[in-house]
Amino acid sequence: MTTKTCAACDDDVGDKPIMVTIGQKTVEVCCETCAQALRDAEKSKSAAR
Length: 49
Known about the structure:
By secondary structure, the protein is an alpha+beta fold. About 35% of the residues lie in helices and about 20% in strands. It has one helix at about 30-49, and strands at about 20, 25-30. Strand 1 (about 20) and strand 2 form a beta hairpin. It is elongated and about 40 Å long. The N and C termini lie far apart (about 40 Å).
């Protein structure tokens, strides 16, 4: 069995990962805190342009 890891913190995403779309790519994260961190990073990147 392959273990999936969180795109933000590299922890195990478990049985119910949260899907977050960053740009054109959808990634899996382990919790809402990691999901929000990725969303905030994407907003910062967009604002810098």
